[in-house]
Amino acid sequence: MEQETRTNTEGFTRPPTTNFMETPEISEAAVEESINAAEEVKTEKKRSRKKKADKPLTYAERLKTVGVSKEEARKIIDTIAEQGRYVEPIKVSSKLTVDLKTRSAEDIDRVTEVINKLQKDTTVTKLTSEVNKYNLAASLHKYGPDHVFDNETDLDFEHTLKFIKRIPAPIYYALCGELAKFDNKVATIMSEGFAENF
Asked: Helix and strand tally (H, E) in the chain?
């Protein structure tokens, strides 16, 4: 390509003009090599992601997913072992705090009875709704400053269940969501590996 140096009328030299349409030729081999390199990078990234997904999380990593330190987990485990349950205050709104507690084997039996009684003659939606109410009634220890539930007897439990059924729907759904998080937290703390870590 010829390049010219031109001088304008004032005597300044202009830079040589370049034809931007002209591109250097790239061999097919170079293009293929570049494509293969890009494919290798993609494959390696996929392999790396799969390795991470396949590798099980350690106990400490599982705790991290629910926002609990090993020290907090140790205290919760000790509380369950010594007192038979763990109670945690949950702030539902600026004016409402509830205390949720871990459920007992008796509470699990109650839910199992409900499932056995209802599963033949009801829809999945209705069954899920009943199980949620029973689990919430079994886990609700305190609602606001005035309502405390112990559920020492079946009659106490029935009283708590009636209370649950009268809660406004938006609060009920919020409590179900909080209970799911609470259950997940406790299940993670008590998951495989906790004994070896304490």
From this structure: 8, 4
Provide the residue range defining the domain that includes 183. 59-197
Q: Are residues 31 and 98 in the same domain?
A: no
The torsion angle over the Cα atoms of residues 160, 162, 168 and 169, rounded to 10 degrees, is: 100
Name every residue whose Cβ is closer than 8 Å to that of residue 148 and which is 6 or more positions away in sequence: 141, 142
Both tokens of 160, joined, read: 């708590």
Of 24-33, 120-129, 135-144, where does mean pLDDT reach its minimum?
A: 24-33
Examine residue 48 and state whether it is found in any structural domain, yes or no.
Answer: yes
Single-letter amino acid, residue 195: A
The pLDDT value recorded for residue 13 is 55
**Which two tokens mark 185?**
């937290």
Q: How many domains does the chain have?
A: 2
Mean pLDDT for 159-181 is: 96
Number of C-alpha atoms within 13 angstroms, CB side, residue 35? Answer: 6
Structure letter (DSSP) for residue 97: E
DSSP 119: T
The model's pTM:
0.70
C-alpha 101/C-alpha 125 separation (Å) is 25
